[in-house]
Write a structure and sequence with these properties.
2 copies of one chain form a homodimer. Chain A is α+β, with helices and mostly antiparallel strands. Chain A contains 9 helices and 4 strands; from the N terminus they run βαβαββααααααα.
Chain lengths: 214, 214
C-alpha cells in the first residue's frame, strides 16, 4: 500500500503510528503540504478532498480520513489490537479518540487557520487563543475521563495501546507545536511520556520525518 | 439506557436515527442546549465535556461522542448493520462519515460559533461565510466520492443504510438550518431524500423533537 503523508500532518502521524505498531509494509509518498502540493491536480486525483493522509491499497482503492484508516488497519492486521475486546470498552476508546479527532483537531488544521487569518482577519494572537481553547478544552475532557475512570491504566485504557493513545499523542504533539501549556493535564502528559518511549511513537514523531525542520 | 439529547444537536440526531433504525429501547432525557443546561453541574456530572449526546448504559457507564456511540449501537444490536461486511467497504463508509463528523460539523457547533462571534468579533455575515465554507467543502468531497465510486447505490454505499448515510443526512440538515444552497450536490441530495422517506430518519428530524420550534 502507498501512504500519502506529510511530516507535519497530525492525521498522518496517527496513521504512521498504527502502521509502525502493526509492522505493516508500505511505501511512503511525502506530499509537501506547507507548499500546497496537496492542492494540485496530481494529489486531488488521489484524494479529491485534497487533505492528508490517504492510503492507496494494492487494488487501487483509496482510503481517506485518518480514523477510518486506523479502523481499517486494525481490522486487516489484528496484532496488536488497537481496540479493547468489549463493546463498552471500545466505545470509551473511540470516544476519547474522537474528542481529539472530531472536536479539537478539526479546529487547528491549516485550511481552518488560513481561513481565520485571511477571511476573518484574525490576528496572530487571536489565532493562538483559538488554538489554545480548542486544545485545552478537549484535553480537559480527556484528562477528566482519565482521572475518574477505573479503566485507565498504563495507557488510556488499561495496559494495551489503543486508538485513544494514538489520538492523545497527536493531541499533545499539537500542544507542543503551538506552545500550549500542558501542566494542568498530568495524567495525559504521563501517558504520552510512556508512549513516546516506544519506538512506534518515537520514530513516527513529526520532527523525525523527511522534510521536517532539523 | 438513557439518551441525553437535544432537538437541535446534529450529533444527537445521528444517535437518534441509529436508535430508531435498530429499534433499541431507551429513555430520552432532553437537555436545553440553547438555554445552556448542558453547562450546568447536573449534566457535567454525566458528561464532563458538557456536550451532547451522552448515552448512559444500564450499568451506569456513560458513552460520549456520537460516532463512538454509533459504533457501539451497531455492535450490540447487529440488525440492520450500519457497516458493510468487508473491511475496505467499512473504511469507505467510515471515511465518508468522518468528512462530516470530523471535518465539517466540528466547525459549526454552538461553542465554536459563539467563540467566533464573542472572542474573534466576527459579524453575522462572517460567521455565515465560515459555516457555508465548512459545509460546502465537506459536501463537495462527499459528492465527488459518491459520483465517482461504483459502490454508491440507493444509499451512500450500496443499498444498505450505513453510518455514511446517517452523517450525510446530518450534513444536509445542517445545510438546511443555515440556509446553504445544496444545488451543486445532486447525488447527496437525492440520497438524503430517500433517507428522509424512511420513518427512522423522518421521525428523528430535529424539528419533530420535543422543544423544537413549531
Amino acid at each position: 500500500m502507498i501512504f500519502y503523508s506529510n511530516w507535519r500532518s497530525l492525521a498522518a502521524y496517527r496513521v504512521r503510528v498504527a502502521l509502525a505498531l502493526k509492522g505493516i509494509s508500505h511505501t511512503v509518498m511525502p506530499i509537501d503540504m506547507l507548499g500546497g502540493e496537496h492542492l494540485l491536480p496530481a494529489f486531488r486525483a488521489v484524494n479529491p478532498q485534497a487533505v492528508l493522509p490517504a492510503l492507496v491499497l494494492d487494488d487501487g482503492q483509496v482510503l481517506f480520513q485518518s480514523m477510518a484508516i486506523l479502523e481499517y488497519l486494525d481490522e486487516i492486521a489484528t496484532q496488536p489490537p488497537l481496540l479493547p475486546a468489549d463493546a463498552a470498552g471500545r466505545a470509551r476508546v473511540r470516544g476519547l479518540a474522537q474528542i481529539h479527532a472530531a472536536d479539537s483537531h478539526p479546529l487547528l488544521v491549516p485550511r481552518v487557520r488560513q481561513f481565520l487569518q485571511k477571511d476573518a482577519g484574525m490576528d496572530d494572537a487571536g489565532v493562538q487563543r483559538w488554538i489554545a481553547r480548542a486544545l485545552t478544552t478537549g484535553l480537559q475532557a480527556i484528562e477528566t475521563n482519565l482521572v475518574t475512570s477505573p479503566q485507565t491504566g498504563t495507557y488510556c485504557h488499561g495496559d494495551q495501546i489503543t486508538l485513544a493513545d494514538i489520538c492523545l499523542s497527536s493531541h499533545l504533539l499539537a500542544m507542543m507545536f503551538f506552545k500550549i501549556d500542558d501542566a494542568a493535564f498530568p495524567t495525559a502528559v504521563a501517558i504520552h511520556g510512556r508512549l513516546m518511549a516506544l519506538p512506534a511513537f518515537a520514530d513516527s514523531h513529526p520532527l523525525r520525518q523527511p522534510g521536517a525542520p532539523s
